[in-house]
Predict the structure.
Amino acid sequence: MEDITKINPPIKEGSNAIEDNSMDEFFDKTIHDIKTDKILLKNKSANQERIDFYNAVKESKKDLIEWAKIGQNLLSQNDLREILVYYLGLLEEFRQEYLKLALILRGTKILVWAEIGEDDSNAEESLYIAEAKANAKFRLTNFRIDTTIVENCDKIDVPTHYILFHPSEE
């Protein structure tokens, strides 16, 4: 009999493999949730959203993994919306003067380009506090805010690939 470690060598410590306990817990919970949904659907007590989801899965040629990816994408869009609304709400709450505020999404990073007045430490501090609060509150999502701050005396234009959110009053 051939040694199985030659075919499938043991996973080395520090690799990207999911630990056995974590994988078992994930599959146990997933199977439990699907069985619960089955009971709810059979008893006609599932909510309409759940009914629509399973009907779409059943009638589609997509497998469950593809549907999970679609669901994850929708959750990600919601996370992005929530972190942006929260962050911009904090900036509004701080009532500081931001001459220009531009944003762009790069993967899971929300890049912020902010232009403030020369030596405006209050505006600078409020930008960093808003970033820190938003990143802390949404730490379990994939999104992070990363802020670049320039002063108007630096005479640096907003990079062209950013979307100008708050233009200065010129």
Q: What stands out?
A: DSSP finds five helices and four strands in the chain. The mean pLDDT is 76. The domain at 76-166 is CATH 3.30.70 (Alpha-Beta Plaits).
